[in-house]
């Protein structure tokens, strides 16, 4: 080794890719010895207290030589350029690492390694790693100390970028609205976010370190699973064994312990790392979509039931069953309000604790249902709310712990209410349930009103059909809208022959047609008319009808329809004429006998 040419070391020094300094520490070392002789025992504290002494100390440092890598690192044109700029290189926070180096030197340490910041001659910070070694203990050993400085800026930048990426990943992972879990190749969960805890109700500690299929089994045992595609250990294992296989998302819906509908979409996504595959299980909350679809189905079911069900009782039962697909309806009733009698009735009542469906007055403050109707707004009450609302006048029925009532409003008029309640769960219903019931209440109100109206119309139609007289209903413009069966029998015309035809279409003889035209003007001015008309039956026979025509005026005073009732008096008139003829003949016979 001693035979190596010194020029080789010089070449190695100059061409080294790292910054190498040859420095003279001897004067700094003597300065530190003098401080010790003066009684300074804690060099770090001393220089922190007297920073000017620290500056005086480092000025004792002499640069003997530097290599080309140093000039390049510090953007210096020459050694002189670098030496004359030492105050720029070691300014501000750069002095922290320099202080640690001085402290090591004062402690008689023969080597030092540290990390800090220097500045190049353009003022740019450089993250550096510095190390030096003193080969002996003589003062001459401090005259040529090799100091190696490595540029750590790129490494620090890379590390910072990685840390920022990891922080960004953590931020996205933790703040994502979708539930996420990382799963290793064996199927064990390694990390979960807060959203997954909220969506499943399972704590992170019950996720991490457990197999995903065991977690699934425990989750399913705590809910009422409504729909689910096949999910098993084998299916997950196939995904884990072959990350390249495309796995379609799995959707499932369920009811929680408060009978609230939830729905999730579950997706497995393979993530390739440098070593192996890991998997992300992503749970997307589909609850709003499913609930919206469920609400739509409820409204469709109710609308369909209006036209299909035979009675109001059947419609009530349909509404009850349909709402059970959205919320708990163990205790449910429908109340209807009659403004004329000011009574609230309960035509449909399903209740675990109360079977009394007696009517209450709408201004009865002890009835929560009456309060909903009188206030025309939704009431969602916990146990304290129920007590506060009924403590003055007492409560109608058994007091509950959770009560939700929604008014049924039609054309800005309250016609009733739908109510659910719980006797043992104080938090069974919440604001979301209020929104669900409110979203279907208008449809239910319309359905109930239509069904009641249809039932009333059916009663009237039955009465009209079974009446002893022929009845024709006209529009205000004079078009036939309805004829009953008796009128068909009287005239021989089917209702299909007459519906939507004008009044002039009725087969009246010429004189009766003129009379009808005059009477029609009178009726349209809201005055009734009665008289006899001659009509030609479909078989050609002439009949006489005793007809009464009356206008029907609505609440606004507008003519809404015209009703004509008629009776076939042809035979009565013939009998009267025959009777009169007989009476005349008898009178003539008595007169002749007397003569």
Write up what this structure looks like:
With 595 residues, the chain is of the alpha+beta class. The strands form four sheets. It has a six-stranded antiparallel β-sheet, with helices on both faces. A six-stranded antiparallel β-sheet has the order 14-13-12-17-16-15, with helices on both faces. A five-stranded antiparallel β-sheet has the order 2-1-5-4-3, sandwiched between helices. A hairpin with a 2-residue loop joins β16 (402-410) and β17. The longest helix has 35 residues, at 431-465. The mean pLDDT is 86.
Question: Main attributes?
Answer:
rod-shaped, 26% strand, single chain, alpha+beta, 595 residues, six-stranded antiparallel β-sheet, 42% helix, 21 helices
The largest sheet, given as strand count, sense and whether it forms a barrel, is: 6 strands, antiparallel
Number of helices: 21
C-alpha Rg, in Å?
50 Å
Structural class label: alpha+beta
Any low-confidence stretches, pLDDT <50, length ≥5? none
The amount of helix comes to 40-55%
Order the strands across the largest sheet as they lie in space: 7-6-11-10-9-8
**Mean of residue pLDDT values:** 86
Number of DSSP E strands:
22
Strand share of the residues?
25-35%
Shape: rod-shaped
Distance between the termini: 187 Å
